[in-house]
Request: fold
Amino acid sequence: MSNPSKDLKVRYQQDLMLWRTPLLRVGLISLLTIYILSPIIWETFPVTKFFDDVGLTLTTLNYAGVFAVGAIGLNLLTGYTGQVSLGHSVFVGAGAYFTAYAGSTWDLPFIVWLPGSLLVGFLIGFIVGPLALRLRGNYLVVVTLGLVFLGDHIFRNWKSVTGGSTGVSVTGASLKIGPIDFRNLEIFGREFEKSQSFFWLIWGFVAIVALLVKNIVRTRPGRALQAVRDRDIAAEIIGVDLLHYKTMAFAISSSIAALAGALFGVLQSFISPIDFGLLVAIQYIAIIILGGMGTIHGSIIGAFVLGSLPRFVENISRDYDLPGVSGDQGGIGGMISISSLNHIIYGILIAAFLLLEPRGIAGIWMRVKTYFKTWPFSY
Amino acid sequence: MDQLLQGVFDGIALGARYSLIVLGFVVIYRATGIINFAQGGFLLIGAFLTYNFSQTWGWNFYLSLFLSMIVTSIIAVLIQLLLLHRSLKEISAGVSCLLSWSIFFYNGNSHLVSLITGVFVGVLVYFVVQRFEMRFGAGQSNELPIFGSIIVTIGILFVIKQVVPSIWGFAEINMGDPWGFKIIKVGNLVLTHAKLWTIALTAVALLGFFLVNRYTKIGIAMRAAHFDHEAAFAQGISLKVVFATAFGIAGAVAALAGTVTGVGIAQLTPNMDLIVFLAFPAMILGGFDSPGGAVAGGIIVGIIQNLTKVYQPEWDLNWLGVGFDRVMVFIVMLIILMIRPYGLFGTKEVHRV
Reply:
């Protein structure tokens, strides 16, 4: 329980501060320590052996980081601006394919193709954004759903760039910033594996994007976006330019998604249209719902949970004999395969969270925090 | 000319399926205000049930179709009661019932024993949760946003899509319809029996729906509920019954749509629910809340899609790629929405500040 007088805010700026309590500052420092140290100690520490057993390897964490980047972008659009997008996977795919093409054909350096993929995402969002001005609610959902099919068709048929249905390799994209090459990292004569160096790369981007979006939403543009979410006509009346803000929300969100796609490409090193289908778009939506709409830390937690869930289920059902779950092939005598089990858990998680806890994990965390903060008068 | 007519006829047959699917969407949307993505799941269940009745158990095809429509609509109503009704005790009872049933069944007990155990556990959990709710206050009462309920139905679709192949397998199988390859020739047109029957069955189903909607008591109640939930409730209309009926009708037409989609050689696959997503442009075209628009939109989209397929090679548009006809309908949808944001026949929503 905290000293109530400490929570007294006399100025508005204090309410907007990022690290406003000592506890948060301690948390920041410990997060930084974890970020720097965990790739080094992951392989050597006995505790992490347990994590590895349940499928929580560094590679899984890297995928979760990629999802976190994309989910933060989607949260800016859906959680803060209230524009539902079921077509986020197209933006992700655009970034990934640009990376593949720029890396292999044009042979661009890291510091050029990365902004390039951001720009590609920005432009696509800039084109799609004005649609949201004319449509809202269910109509927007269905139109963005149409984007997925449009994108999938382009990915499969623009063979010179995307390699068609078979996909394209992303190993050509260089990851060199000055002396540091993330593909084979070497610091003080010590060589690191790909999963270790990618952890630093990807989670560094998670931090940058989280800070960027947090800064957007706690300043003037962010307040405008939230006004648009709450009631767009009312927002327009008090002077929020809807065209500007809705388009910008789409553009920024999709450029962040393109960044996620670029990272996904270099992490997986081979991409095909399956990686950017409807399932992935729903996955991103599921992440922000599970984590909590309209929260940054919620998207990261959601990405962490849903990103590591498939590996977890896989390892658990491999080690223990679950009733009714067979091996890799499904559909034998009423048995469910592991991947099917994953999808079922997915579906149940989405449905259950929306029905029982619509504000997600961040909402649960909020309630626990309030309980202890106001103790012993917490009711 | 013959080519055009043939394309239009095939397009109408395709559009008839879209009309059926969209009708299911529209009925649920009018009653409850949500888009039911789980429609694809109902379609799968209906198609595979028909297959199961007619092929595995060897019953008459039309009887199987009828039975599958009934069973699917019962399943749809159950799903609506369990999940979209959003009551903690019912959800937890249902989930624990299913869980205990599956655990008992896969540990070697017979169907009957595991079913009884499941029901017993479910009822037990129901009352326990009810006690908890009474002591700690009822569950949340805030409204689920429209977007939220859409995602819930997507979750249901995920589950159904995995459960269906685990029962009937992933293979592409034959529906075993009585129509086969029989054709009727009118001039130079080739009309296959399957397509004619599709159109005829669709017409009967649509006619039945419109008669129910226009003349029966429940139809009037559904129209009243679409107009204003609270006013209808104040007039003594049970919204529960209206919602359940809407899901029942949607399940039945989905079963019919699934069956006519699955006819032919090796057409019945667990991926068949993709046609539901292709039906979305039809729904947009007609407007979300207009059953007549659903029919018109479905047929327009079917004709557009089929004519694109026919004329794409002829007009040297092959560079647009294989399967462009499916994207074409989405492009048409986008153009129409830019001109008329509420579809061709939909009602304009009034937004109050």
User: Anything to note?
Assistant: The first strand of chain A starts at residue 168 and ends at 169. Residues 242-268 of chain A form the longest helix (27 residues). Strands of chain A lie at 168-169, 176-177, 180-181, 186-187, 190-191, 270-271.
